[in-house]
Design brief:
It is a single chain. The protein is an all-alpha fold. 71% of the residues lie in helices and 0% in strands. It has 21 helices and no strands. Helix 7 runs antiparallel to helix 21 and helix 15 runs antiparallel to helix 16. The radius of gyration is 25 Å and the shape is globular. It starts with 28 loop residues before the first helix and ends with a helix.
Length: 544
């Protein structure tokens, strides 16, 4: 398949026999037809899967308005993943293209395939880490007008910023963009409810994610530079550290290494970045059709035995902490307050204990998650979410005064209840994988040229490409195992810069300044964009 768009000819006028790759390709109607066919199949499969899930759940359909909103929200969410695909393609393919290891069109299709496979192999940990940043009251009421305003605002803001930086050829971070959008919604939501804007975001989680995004470019720069210097000591083959000769591919062993690292980065990018849309799609599904997606009805009845044991052990600990206090009225506000402020008070443990008892009673009464009545699934899901998020914070809270054994018991219980709410249907993975994979094959040229030509003063060598890709692949894979959304863009771009500095070839400071400016502006601009859109959508959808 050839490229589906030639982009802007930023490399025109170069000697065709020189080391720079051929990036200009004519539009192939067969490739376009295949692209459109895959897209149509993906959308059709998504619609069929939703219809099938609703039919199996047996939930009655009383109005079609939620499905209209669902369709719009899903298109926007998949659109974000599509833009993410072509925005971040350069992270994987720039090095193999500029070392002539693969032709440009083969590289982007190969990358798209491995992005697809990476999404399919993902665990979902990153997806729910992103969701944890959202305001708890909006997650609990995601099907309300405010919930839809939240989803529309943060996704559209992220798409706008990604498209803008792509148009300028700047490899900015999609992770930074989405997280900034989430913070913007959280801050404005808190202000609209008469609270301090800082109370609208889980700052402990935001700081944890912020560190991973902040340190990823530093790790990329330093690690890639050190790896290249180490390679020069251990592998004394001059061909590895020279720019390509004409349009000829490198020796087979170098070519194999570069293709392998391209494959690894593509797979790791899919497994990490693909999850960011998954969590939001699950929120959309829960908000519009909770009867089918609020709880994981695929859990087997055997899960009840493990849940009952973990619940009994955890309840003993929490009720011991709550001894001497009683809850009068609804226990949820006290638990929500703790999740938002992370401040224990005399009502936290008693309220948490009541919710845990209610969850255990409901699940044990019906015998399995699948048998909980349709009218109750929304409340059960919200109670489980509140308990899970509260326990996540309590085990880290020094004021909770828990022993290591207590923490492990509560974690085990949290793992059991999370199985009921933190799940991703296979069809959601497939839809996101198709969107990300197809996006990888579109509009790649702008940022590929920036990474390949405009970071260093000299042409990228084989060793530099391999070093930058190896570091990017390893960093993303490690972050994925810990459920942290790391920026593929930052790691790879800074890795290329690190190899240029280590090689003594120098970097183009104008490009570096533009990259740093884009990286610095991403968070504040995304916050302002999403906050403004949330305010507008909330009023349009008659919020409050």
């Amino acid at each position: 398949m050839t490229s589906l768009t030639s982009g802007v000819d930023l490399a025109a006028g170069h000697d065709p026999q020189g080391p720079k790759p051929k990036l200009d390709q004519s539009l192939d109607i067969r490739g376009l037809l295949v692209f459109l066919a895959v897209m149509a199949c993906g959308l059709g499969f998504t619609a069929f899967s939703i219809w099938s899930d609703l039919r199996e759940s047996g939930a009655p359909v009383t109005t079609y308005l939620p499905f209209v909103l669902l369709g719009v929200a899903l298109l926007i969410a998949l659109g974000f993943e599509f833009v993410n695909g072509f925005h971040d393609t350069a992270n994987a393919v720039a090095t193999v293209i500029y070392t002539h290891s693969l032709p440009a069109t083969v590289a982007v299709v190969w990358s798209g395939i491995w992005n697809f496979l990476g999404v399919m192999a993902s665990t979902g940990a990153v997806a729910f880490g992103i969701v944890s940043l959202l305001p708890v009251e909006l997650i609990l009421q995601v099907g309300s007008s405010a919930g839809f305003a939240m989803v529309f605002a943060l996704l559209i803001a992220a798409i706008i910023w990604n498209l803008g930086t792509w148009w300028l050829g700047l490899p900015a971070s999609s992770s930074h963009t989405l997280i900034g959008s989430i913070i913007g919604v959280g801050v404005v939501n808190a202000l609209m409810r008469g609270r301090d804007g800082t109370s609208g975001v889980d700052w402990s989680k935001a700081v944890e994610i912020g560190y991973s995004l902040l340190f990823s470019p530093i790790v990329g720069f330093v690690a890639a530079a050190l790896l290249l210097l180490t390679m020069k000591v251990l592998v004394r083959n001059p061909a590895l550290y020279q720019e390509p000769k004409g349009q000829n591919p490198p020796p087979w062993w170098i070519r194999g290494l570069l293709v392998l690292t391209c494959t690894g980065v593509s797979f790791a990018h899919g497994s990490n970045d693909g999850q960011k849309g998954m969590g939001l799609i699950m929120l959309i599904l829960i908000g519009t059709v909770p009867t089918a997606y609020a709880l994981n009805r695929a859990l087997p009845a055997s899960h009840i035995a493990a849940f009952a044991s973990a619940s009994e052990a955890a309840s003993t600990i929490v009720e011991g902490k709550a001894e001497g206090y009683q809850v009068i009225g609804d226990p949820r506000p006290a638990v929500m307050q703790y999740i938002s402020r992370h401040e224990l008070n005399e009502g936290t443990y008693p309220s948490l204990a009541v919710l845990m008892r209610d969850i255990a009673k409901e699940i044990e009464t019906y015998g399995s998650i699948a048998k909980i009545p349709f009218a109750a699934v929304g409340n059960t899901r919200n109670d489980i979410y509140l308990v899970s998020e509260a326990l996540r914070s309590i085990v880290k809270d020094r004021d909770a005064e828990l022993t290591d054994g207590d923490k492990q018991v509560l974690k085990n219980y949290k793992d059991e209840i999370d199985q009921a709410t933190k799940f991703i249907p296979t069809w959601v993975k497939i839809a996101v994988a198709i969107a990300l994979g197809l996006g990888t094959m579109i509009g790649w040229k702008r940022i590929v040229v920036t990474v390949g030509e405009r970071i260093g003063k000299q042409h990228l060598t084989y060793g530099q490409g391999a070093s930058a890709e190896l570091v990017a692949m390893s960093t993303i894979a490690i972050a994925d195992s810990y459920g942290l959304p790391v920026s593929t863009t930052h790691v790879l771009s800074s890795g290329v810069a690190g190899t240029m500095a280590a090689n003594g070839s120098g970097v183009q400071m104008g490009t570096i300044r533009n990259l740093l400016m884009a990286w610095v502006l991403t968070l504040p601009c995304a916050i302002l964009l999403s906050g403004g859109l949330y305010f507008a959508f909330s009023h349009i959808l008659k919020f409050g």
